[in-house]
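Here is one chain, start to finish.
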Amino acid sequence: MEWPEGELSARVSAKLNPMLDFAFSDPAPDVMGETHAFLAVQGGRIVAERYWKGFDKASTHHSWSQAKSMTQALVGILVREGKIDIHAPADVPEWQGTDDPRRAITLDQLLRMSSGLKFAEDYVDAGVSDVIEMLFGSGKDDVGGFAAKFPLIHTPDTFWSYASGTTNIVARCAARALGASGEAFREFMFRELFGPIGMTSAAPKFDMAGTFIGSSFCFCTERDFARFGLLYLRGGMWDGRRILPEGWVDYARTPTKTPPTETQGYGAHWWLGMAGPGSFSANGYEGQYTVVVPELDLILVRNGKSPLEQKDEVMRWMGRAADCFRL
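Its structure:
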């Protein structure tokens, strides 16, 4: 299942290639950090591909929070199979007390980061960071259980707050709905998602409790991240086979109300608007992006190592890269 290849028009090349030269310059530009890989797919064909020193098309890259969008896809497959209802209260054992206000939280609210749960999403300060404690500290053996213990601090569906703990609760709910965890859940991922679309490099990571660490850990090649993007660009279809239920991609990109401080919109475990109106993206820490631009039949993938202070510039660069394909 090799990618077919196409060619950029001279007009697009004249605009895009100088941008790539800058992003891949050595030493890396201070405003962007290192860009390890870039891929553009238009019309289902690779039209641009470049790698940093030491990387090539066989190299795998850290997903970081791009894995959240993969978790959304796995929930969609369970919806397709009738195993899960996103509008029903989430199946979280810690929330089942009769006087526990969390028992009413739905998977839909979790997927839209609007559960109202307390969680500090800080990637730098280990002293105040719940996500660092979850992934690398006391929560690492049971990420879903760790996240499920946090209290409710807002009425569900009234406050948006991006939280990796939320995704690991969702991932554990998916395992419970399937009735499988650990290696059996990995087999489900490859049978129903990765295998059918040819993501042979995908390497999802699990905690000791057998939960897919869906907030943060699924390594892939650049080309396989693009395959995942193409699945969403094609509305959840692959070679005539429906992978995601009808309407699931539209659900992913239906806006959730976010604070005015957010520079991007948010849907259901997908970000909105990086490459203009109608675009949506799987975003990860340090500048991991898979951007879907339906208007242009385009997917852009970028992996690298860009500190948080460079995040906005890298996102602007991705938006300008998409603009190169516009007339």
